[in-house]
Design goal:
Elements (H helix, E strand, L loop, with lengths): L1 H13 L5 E8 L8 E5 L2 E6 L1 H4 L4 E5 L2 E9 L2 E9 L5 E7 L5 H6 L12 E9 L5 E10 L2 E6 L2 E4 L2 H16 L3 H4 L10 E8 L2 E9 L7 H6 L1
Parallel strand pairs: 1-7
Antiparallel strand pairs: 1-4, 2-3, 2-5, 5-6, 8-9, 8-12, 9-10, 10-11, 12-13
Length: 225
């Protein structure tokens, strides 16, 4: 509710200024790591620190141009580009963040990362919802230290950023505590659910179903669809 009131106030005030406004909103199930940095032309122009700024997540008087926001996500440091092509513009963006125990994640073993040369692994992912359910099957093979996607008997090299995401995503799925772990009584039909499964040599070696309103669980769809 407080966020909505802030946005309404911004909309009333924007007509009286010459430059642009950017309102940064955070999406998370519970606690968030909401630190972020704003850059333009590779120069840092704003630093938002949760412990110092508290609720001051609106950026005023931005000039026309290109901007980049760096922030923490389940994939480590992530980025988002924002641009203003005219004055008196107002934009709202959402950063999908979560306070992850990165030390615990680093110590977690990853089946994907631990693949040996010539080994194959299949990742099965399904987004379970009433409206647009999605299913994904990704077969990975490692050859000479390089990861490839196998599809229709063809090999396609997996980009480094995608591979890094898949490894981190697997580790967080393994270590994360989500709604169905913490508060199973609060999980309803409207709560987002996914099923994550790893199959090797026709045997399921890891499987987890997660119910969570944290939208970060959907990030894998942005990388693989």
């Amino acid at each position: 509710m407080k966020t909505i009131l802030q946005i309404i106030c911004l909309l009333f005030s924007i007509s009286s200024i010459a430059q642009n406004l950017l309102f940064v909103n955070f999406e998370s199930s519970e606690s968030i790591n909401s630190d972020f940095h704003l850059y333009t032309n590779d120069s840092l122009i704003y630093k938002y620190c949760e412990s110092q700024n508290k609720e001051d997540n609106q950026l005023n008087n931005l000039e026309i141009g290109e901007y980049k926001i760096l922030f923490n996500s389940i994939n480590g440091i992530d980025s988002l580009n924002v641009s203003f092509s005219a004055n008196k513009d107002f934009q709202i963006i959402e950063l999908f963040t979560e306070r992850i125990d990165f030390e615990k994640v680093k110590k977690t073993e990853s089946v994907i990362e631990g693949l040996k040369n010539d080994e194959k692994l299949t990742l099965l992912y399904s987004n379970i919802n009433c409206y647009t359910p999605k299913e994904l099957k990704l077969t990975i093979v490692k050859k000479n230290g390089i990861y490839y996607e196998l599809k229709n008997n063809k090999q396609k090299r997996i980009k480094n950023r995608v591979l890094t995401f898949l490894i981190n995503y697997e580790k967080i799925i393994r270590t994360g505590r989500f709604e169905n772990d913490l508060h199973p009584e609060l999980v309803t039909i409207s709560t987002a659910s996914i099923n994550y499964e790893l199959v090797k040599n026709n045997n399921t070696i890891y499987c987890r179903r997660i119910s969570s309103n944290w939208k970060g669980i959907y990030e894998i769809e942005n990388y693989l669809w």
